[in-house]
Amino acid sequence: MAWNIGANDVANSMASAVGARAITIRQAIFIAGILNIVGAVFIGSHVTKTIRKGIVSTDILADPHLALIGALSALLAAALWVSFATWKSLPVSTTHSIVGAMIGFGIMAGGFSVINWGKLGAVVLSWVISPVFAMVIAFLMFKTIVKFILSKQDPFSQALKLAPYFISMALFVVILSFLFKTPLGKQLALGTPLALLVALVLALVLSFVAVKILRKFIKKTNLTGEEEVFRKIQIGTSCYVALAQGANDVANAIGPLAVIYFLVKTGSVGAKVPVPVFLLFFGGIGIACGIGMAGHRVMDTIGRKITTLTNTRGFAVDFAAATTVMVASKMGLPVSTTHAAVGGVMGVGLARGIEAVNFRVIFEIILYWILTVPAAAITSIVIFKILQLFIYRNF
Amino acid sequence: MRIPFISMFVTSPFDGVQEHAEMVKECAWVFQRAIECIIEDRCEDFEQFRKDIDKLESEADAVKRRVRGHLPKGTLLAVDKFQLFRYLREQDKVIDAVEEGLDWLSFRAAAGIPQVLEKDFMILVEAVTDPIEELSKMVAEARKYFSSFSEDQRIVVKDMIRTLRHHEHEADKLEDAVKEKIFNAIEDPVAVFHLIRLTEIIGSIADHAENAGDMMRAMIAK
CA A64, CA A263: separation in Å to the nearest integer? Predict the structure, then answer.
């Protein structure tokens, strides 16, 4: 499952960077692998909790056997469905598959009443909101770049002058997510206003250091010096996306696994199951393996197909996608990185920044939302039934 | 695996527009050679030039149709879709006018262009080929603007459009002068009709180039 995520979703984080020729394919794979692990381990735990017990009521998890079968069937169903989709070239989201699979198991185990429809509604709503949110951010970001940098007399020095603000914005969100609710942040135990202040100061300081380094490495060579500045910044934002992706997507693979692990270890499921860090790490490794093994092919396609994305646009897309995923992941909502990235591209497209973008992919995405959830749910139900048969026979 | 992220990126219609502009440029070159040929005493290649233009015209038409036909609904461009189509139409009309000019000339190829007017026609043809050679450069510069959004680049494109307009104005003045000379120098009414119509067709080449420039101006408007 984690392997699938790595293989398919790596496109989202690294696509714009590779497409805009900011980094090579090899570098992209390396960076994405490492940062997915980091994101998974340090920021990843919240979504896992939501998937594990937010949608399906914990009451039915009281029976350890049922819960074990359920979690197993959910994991298998989602993995099967995603593999099938990969084989058939369908653009599905791993996030949606796992949510659907959990629903299927919930219905089987306790009927329709155990599904927390309100929570499910919030999750579905977040799927709609996340592309829109990313779109708005990308649109504003690109408009800002055009207004304050590109249309100026000397875009190169403007880009250098404003670079610290762009970098610190990205850093601010990353640091904030580290400070809130992560194991690391909890140890520091900062209050909200103090955390905000610390994040702000840290972000500003770090960004000025980054710009110092930028200035050293970039020499004005030709007319497109400003793109060169964003080329360097984009390496950073790609890392940002990979980090956010690790934080968000690890839950897809680890959520049900955490339940199984806990059951095997303690024999029951409490209302609050701590997610062991090593499981998150394991998930991160899985994603990294997927990236390492299949990412090359995906990235190669991207490098050849996406040629109209320049560095300024790539930056806007990356920034919007990562911020959206990061915020959603902090709120415990499982959103799809793909949708955030698609939303980001749409935003830049609406700002007329790309020569041609086809928005019809949106309808395709919606179609597969509608398809994926029930399909994964039904698969999960079938597997659940089969497993039940086997296990009860053994008793 | 079909990744939604990738399927968002479709081939830019500007590739086709650029290709089309290159064909227009090639056309201008062939046209000039053809007129030079007919003015020479023994012209054997004229039919060949005419065939070349015919071929170029149908190829350019195919490019035009490809651009128009391969923009799926819901595609968002850096410019308005119909502005782009209008631009392409004007650019295509330049080739059409060149083709029409050579066709018209071929109807009375034996008579050719009278010696007294040879020089005037050469100057007129030169005046209209200058602007159409600019078109491909203008498209390239405009694309640069759409990617950089730099004000300097916008001014570069605007200057090119202004030059185009200037060229058209010059060609217009020349056209009038040639017409006047035709009426005064030629006695044969059939020859007058043929030459006047030829002058008008050649003049319209520059008109279409200017119209294309105007559409480009609309596309780069803020």
Answer: 6
Query: Would you call B149 and A152 a contact, using CB atoms and an 8 Å cutoff?
Result: no
- In tens, the pLDDT along A226-242 reads 777 777 777 777 777 77
Where in chain B are the domains?
A: 12-219
Contact state of A359 with B1 under an 8 Å Cβ cutoff = no
Owning domain of residue A278: 2-55+116-154+208-357
Please report whether residue A83 resides in a domain.
no
Where are the alpha helices (H) located in A334-360, listed in sequence order?
337-350
**CATH placement of domain B12-219:** 1.20.58.220
What amino acid occupies position A260? I
Q: Could you give the angle at which helices A337-350 and A225-266 cross, rounded to 10 degrees?
A: 160
Whether A96 maps to a domain, the answer reads no
Cβ(B124)–Cβ(B202) under 8 Å? yes
Interfacial residues of B (vs A; Cβ cutoff 8 Å): 1-14, 71-79, 143, 146-152
- Nearest Cβ partner of B77 from A146, A338, A356? A356
ipTM for the predicted complex comes to 0.74
Whether A198 maps to a domain, the answer reads: no
Across the interface, of B2, B12, B72, the residue whose CB is closest to A91 is B2
Question: Nearest CB to A355: which of B3, B14, B149?
Answer: B14
The span from the CA of A158 to the CA of A346, in Å, is: 26
In a domain, A61, yes or no: no
Two tokens, residue B212? 């294309």
CA-wise closest residue to B145 among B159, B164, B124, B131: B159
pLDDT for B1 equals 44
Query: Is A91 an interface residue toward B (CB < 8 Å)?
Result: yes
**pLDDT digit string, tens, across residues A31-44:** 777 777 777 776 66
Beta-carbon separation of B3 and A11 below 8 A: yes
Structurally, chain A folds into a number of domains equal to 1
